[in-house]
Design a protein that fits this description.
By secondary structure, the chain is α+β, with helices and mostly antiparallel strands. It folds into two domains: 86 residues, Beta Barrel (OB fold (Dihydrolipoamide Acetyltransferase, E2P)); 293 residues, Bira Bifunctional Protein, Domain 2 (BirA Bifunctional Protein, domain 2, 2-Layer Sandwich). The protein is 30% helix and 27% strand. It contains twelve helices and 18 strands. The strands form four sheets. An eight-stranded mixed beta sheet has the order 6-10-11-18-17-16-13-12, with helices on both faces.
Length: 428
């Protein structure tokens, strides 16, 4: 008998079917027993005489096949049930699991949830996170495909750091040292020289010894780069439209998830303001008495700016542009006397995006490298690409896990990471 998915059961009553999945709940009464079966499409209640199941010794999270008939049942949430003819055990769950797929795991420690990630994915609260995350990826790609971008796939084994820093993971590469990529930045720029508009979704690696609720050493970056821009404002406007598209789709397709979590629909990002970095420092001094910031924002400052943005515009988000040039990568185009044509997007109190306009000719890049104490000769392979007619260009990178975290109001980025890698965790 061919397998039927739970979502297909409503197509007709009385027919013989076979469904497969996990036992989410099992309730055994004196005469009748009830199995709530779960597959990747939903839940269904299955009913049988207790004596027919007694010798099977079923329990939650056993993997089974049920053969039976669909029967209309108005009292059921799905409006139908399955009358069981036969249960075929496919695999047994352990006897001492720390929680079950039907459990409320809000009181379970994060470490246990991560150690038993496949089991936690069967719970509604965790499954919802990764369904929303999958939608972010889907609609990121969909929007950019519609706007003339080409998806590229680039190497994650590189000869050096894109940002000239030391936060690199070194690996043995035959007879020399190579590194895991901090960013696809250089490859995105090369893509602009050939395809004009490109994007990539992939892992990047940062050897930074953080142990916070917002940092990972391996995370998934949503990168894009576009040519023939007039300034970083073009990139900012594209991101406003991109996030608005993603948010609208999530509001439509995952309204049930947002409602279960007590969340309001996601806002349009078209009205998110752009504030100069120096203006942000003044706003923080005026509103919160902050006089301790100079070259960058700290987490508290990011949260405070989003509070101010929500008061003024109704959206807890702001683009901050014009950071000090010395705090940005060497390839960043200068802006004004000492600022950078570079921005961050703060959303609900957290930086989720860094972007900006890049230098696009060899001479400017060489001067920038020398100004940072770096030898242009060490970057010759990179600089050569700027002899090929590189147009003015810019782009951005969005941290997928951070964006997921902020959309769903999570407290730790590891909740939005299937198998997080941080300073302490390397398994599973």
């Amino acid at each position: 008998m061919n397998r039927t998915f739970v979502s297909q059961l409503a197509e007709g009553s009385g027919r013989e079917i076979a469904v497969r999945g996990w036992i989410q709940r099992f309730r055994e009464l004196s005469r009748t027993s009830f199995i709530i079966l779960e597959d990747c499409t939903g839940l269904v209640q299955c009913v049988a005489p207790t004596e027919a199941l007694h010798d099977l010794h079923l329990k939650p999270d056993d993997t089974i096949e049920i053969r039976g008939r669909v029967r209309a049942e108005p009292r059921s949430r799905a409006s139908f049930e399955i009358d069981i003819d036969q249960v075929i055990p496919l695999n047994r769950a352990g006897d001492m699991l720390p929680f079950n797929s039907g459990s409320d795991i809000s009181g379970v420690s994060q470490e246990i949830v991560l150690d038993y990630r496949p089991l936690s994915l069967r719970t509604e609260s965790v499954r919802d996170i990764f369904r929303v995350q999958a939608s972010i990826l889907k609609y990121f790609r969909e929007f950019l495909d519609r706007n003339y971008f080409t998806e590229i796939v680039t190497s994650k084994i590189v000869a050096g750091g894109t940002e000239g820093g030391t936060n690199l993971f070194a690996i043995n590469y035959f007879d020399r040292v190579a590194y895991l990529a901090q960013s696809p930045q250089f490859y995105k720029e090369y893509g602009v020289a050939g395809l004009e508009r490109v994007y990539e979704a992939g892992h990047v690696y940062r050897a930074e010894p953080h142990a916070t609720s917002r940092h990972l050493t391996e995370y998934y970056s949503l990168d894009l780069e576009m040519g023939f821009i007039d300034g970083p404002e073009d990139v900012i406007q594209l991101e406003r439209e991109l996030l608005t598209y993603i948010f609208n789709e999530i509001n439509t397709r995952h309204a049930d998830i947002l409602a279960r979590r007590g969340l309001s629909p996601l806002p349009s990002m078209l009205g998110v303001p752009t504030w100069e970095f120096d203006d942000c420092l003044e706003r923080l001094r005026s509103a919160f008495g902050r006089a301790d910031l100079a070259d960058d924002l700290d987490p508290q400052g990011e949260r405070e700016l989003c509070v101010l943005a929500e008061r003024e515009n109704g959206i807890p988000a702001v683009f901050v542009i014009g950071y000090p040039l010395r705090s940005r990568p060497f390839y960043t185009r200068p802006r004004g006397d000492s600022g950078a044509a570079s921005f961050d997007l703060l959303f609900r109190g957290l930086e989720i995006t860094t972007g900006g306009e890049r230098l696009h000719n060899r001479e400017s890049l060489e001067r920038a490298l020398i100004g940072r104490g770096l030898a242009p000769e060490a970057f010759e392979t990179h600089l050569r690409m700027f002899d090929l007619g590189m147009p003015p260009h810019g782009g951005l990178a969005i941290g997928l896990e951070r964006l997921t975290m902020q959309i769903l109001g999570l407290t730790n980025v590891r909740e939005a990471t299937m198998y997080p890698r941080d300073r302490h965790r390397l398994t599973p």
